[in-house]
Amino acid sequence: MTLKRSAVTYFFALISLAAAAQSPSKRSLTPQDVYRLQAISDPQVSPDGQWVAYVQSAVDVAKDKRNADIWMVSWDGKESIQLTNSPDGESKPRWSPDGKYLSFVATRNGATKPQLFLLDRRGGEGKKLTDLKGDLEDYEWAHDGKRIALVVRDPDYADSAKTKIRKPYVLDRYHFKQDIKGYLEKNPVHLYLFDVAAKTLDTLTSGSFDETSPVWSPDGTQLAFVSNRTEDPDKNQNTDIWLIDARKGATLKRLTDWTGYDHSPVWSPDGKSLAYLRSTGSGNFLMYDQPLLAVISKDGGEPTLLSKTLDRPVRNPRWSKDGQSIGVLVEDDRQVYVGQYAVATGKLTQLASGNRTFSALEPKAAGQWLTLMSEPHLPAELYALEDGKPRRLTTVHDEFVSPLQLASVEGFTSRSKDGTQVSGILYRPANAPAGKRLPLILFIHGGPVGQDNYGFDLSRQMLAAGGYAVAAVNYRGSNGRGLDFTKAIYADWGNKEVVDILGATDYLIEKGIADPERLGIGGWSYGGILTNYTIATDSRFKAAASGAGSSLQLSLYGSDQYTNQYETELGAPWKNLDKWLKVSYPFLKADRIKTPTQFMVGEKDFNVPVAGSEQMYQALRSLGVPTELIIYPGQFHGISVPSYQKDRFERYLQWFDKYLKAPAPVAQKQP
């Protein structure tokens, strides 16, 4: 156990200030800084409100991986204590109801399955509670502290033979593959009741359906959970909230009957109702949807949709301690703010907003919340939110940012050629000469349903540190601007988004920020896909970096995890070939591309498989356009190995430097 007291913190702060005074110049961010960046997640307030437990991860350079430990910080922010320090890593800290213990999930001592551990908050080692054969995916304490609801996936016995050779995958599901999880056989997730004292396990649910997100009623008699129990859950997103008595052999009761999704249930403090998130639409594919805050009686009936008129996505619903209001995080035009709905009137109050991003929310006491907040120049830290004013609790990232000279960050608004107003964020390199045009990189977000916001962005800061103006563009399809804005690209990929990206490019050139002769573009996932669409539309970009993208969309049917989306949005290829060919234009019109392009992808990506990058690489190689292909071994859609993350930044900068910073050719004198 490691204890860091306020006096020690202040002592090192004084040393840092003294060092800064002696060496006032700061340095630029470099790819090597990937190894220094830590992360905070999953904060939990203790029952007495005096402590906050959380997960803090850091890079183990020797092992080339991130390792997560459990920490806690006092509510006054004066003490910070590291509770675990093992090479195996820990996650999901949860307080016992009496506040004496912290439970967590870990895979220790050579075990192959994660287990639940219990740690006395006063000190000592974590003790293993469970011996599960399947994967532990989630858990929640009952309010009496005697029972724990577990979410466990059925064991996979396919590789249990003595030879260690896995049996063949036998697949008969509509949705048969998923990034990270791989090929999907039938191993459903079920609920179990674990007796803490006796260490016994009772089965609560069984069968072929998944049951997730259990939450205990305040009196401990029932569990609410989420399940899709339609005939073929793979073909829709129709999850509902269900109730079950907390005893073996109990009967399930469906609480909601909306044909879209219902999820994230939380009980009111009096146990009479539940808040949850409900989709706006009722279709079977809801990627372009946005969740509403709903409240329903535990006895059923019609829910009250508190955020129905907001036209913004809400998430992380949490009841206030007095049960009079529900706190939420709201996505709104480059911001994520903390809002609070009065249950009786439906009135929304903004508790904390501004050019920053909130990413977690937990109640503490009347008028007090715990949150994670990130700002343009500071990664996420824990804050106490008291009467709408954030008070910082942790200083995890001070050491990371203190030596760095980061890019300035400002919002901008451009107008596309069809008149659409588009929001963006501009990163200017530190000490960029005033009035001088800079090489520009448009770095495009994925999703497409997401948004670039005012939180700390390592990728764009890294590119700006290389001397580039970097623009984030919330093209049509992004959230935070209303449902119609998000749904504008439905079944029409690579059209309006490209119009918006080019409109932002024109705006930055017009304002004297971007050098029109030194334009670059890049992105990951749908950002990589849009990179391909854009360079196939406009040849003025001198360099591109397409990450985990695709272009010949027709070839991905059955190869990635999006069959449900394809058949709903585009129709089956054999019925709507013209539409499939239309959205595949970057490959089918690859001879229009003149931009030198770097392609990157994870070897095991099932989200946007490696073929999407290979095809475009091969096309440009055949056409004689400068190109290269980088495949990261063993990686999924997200690149998680720290050295690969560093490598990716280095290759971005090398590629863009080569084509955007190369000296102009010397003009030949005429005879």
From TrEMBL:
Domain Peptidase S9 prolyl oligopeptidase catalytic: start-end pairs: 456-661
Coiled coil: none
Domain of life: Bacteria
Mitochondrion among keywords: no
Annotated keywords: Acetylation, Hydrolase, Protease, Serine protease, Signal
Signal peptide (UniProt feature, chain positions): 1-21
Pfam family name, one: Peptidase_S9
UniProt keyword Protein biosynthesis, yes or no: no
Function: This enzyme catalyzes the hydrolysis of the N-terminal peptide bond of an N-acetylated peptide to generate an N-acetylated amino acid and a peptide with a free N-terminus. It preferentially cleaves off Ac-Ala, Ac-Met and Ac-Ser. Also, involved in the degradation of oxidized and glycated proteins.
Protein name according to UniProt: Acyl-peptide hydrolase
Source species of the chain: Nibrella saemangeumensis
Lineage: Bacteria, Pseudomonadati, Bacteroidota, Cytophagia, Cytophagales
